[in-house]
Amino acid sequence: MSTDLIAPTKEKPDMENNLTPELLLAGIRDTRLVAIVRGTDGAAAAMAALAAMEEGFRFVEIALTTPGALAAIREVRAAAPAGCFVGAGTVLTVQHVERVAEAGGQFLVTPALAESIDESARRGIPLLAGALTPTEAYEAMNRGATAVKLFPASIGGPRYLKALRDPFPDIPFIAVGGVGLDEAAGYWEAGAIAVGLGGPLFGDAGSGGDLAPVRERARSFVDLAAGFGRRTAQAGSR
Fold it and tell me: What pTM value is reported for the model?
């Protein structure tokens, strides 16, 4: 884990975090996309995050397992286009929540039912909580999560998501893990409010790889989500 999670953060963001859980949920429902940057170079991760934002992604998380993640979050927060938001992934502890908030992170994401869920709820910071089973999904929401990150979604696929939603129709699920351009629509059709995209979007860009393919893939995902939204709206109006 990055050493900048241990040392106190000297800089604080210039702007207050005005992203509430309600606004995050509405924004994710609208865009149907969350981007996930994970790599070996914080500076490269920041550039990758900004590239995705410039191509239409509004919500991008930078995993805290990326060296220099907090500095990357500060950089993206300062340079993000209007209407775009940067968060932190792999947020597990109370200390992580504190450090991310100091760095300007606007939302948090966990891979599991970590203590960070309770701390984020106490602070009013939006959080997407990782869960796989029905018990975990219920527990995540009961502890104050904004939405459930179904992870790893590829284990059960869209059919498993649909089965989960039958007893929990009001839980907002975001499918993450093994979701690419060919799989995204299947999860939306099964009821996911969004999909989370890591490797299928960024490739090795978080470790210094070429950003041109990231931009091309980002446009493809944005176009796919927009097209799905149009078809859904047309079907609903009939």
Answer: 0.92
Torsion 96-100-101-106 (CA) sign:
negative
pLDDT digits (tens, 9 = 90+) for 152-173: 999 999 999 999 999 999 999 9
Q: Which is the catalytic residue, given 55, 75, 119, 149?
A: 149
Which candidate, 129, 89, 155, 187, places its Cα nearest to that of 138?
129
Is 149 catalytic? The answer is yes
How many C-beta neighbours within 10 Å does residue 224 have?
A: 18
Identify whether 12 is a catalytic site residue.
Answer: no
> What is d(CA 32, CA 28) in angstroms, rounded to the nearest whole number?
5
Contact 148, 131 (CB under 8 A): yes
Q: Which of 55, 61, 75, 119 is catalytic?
A: 61
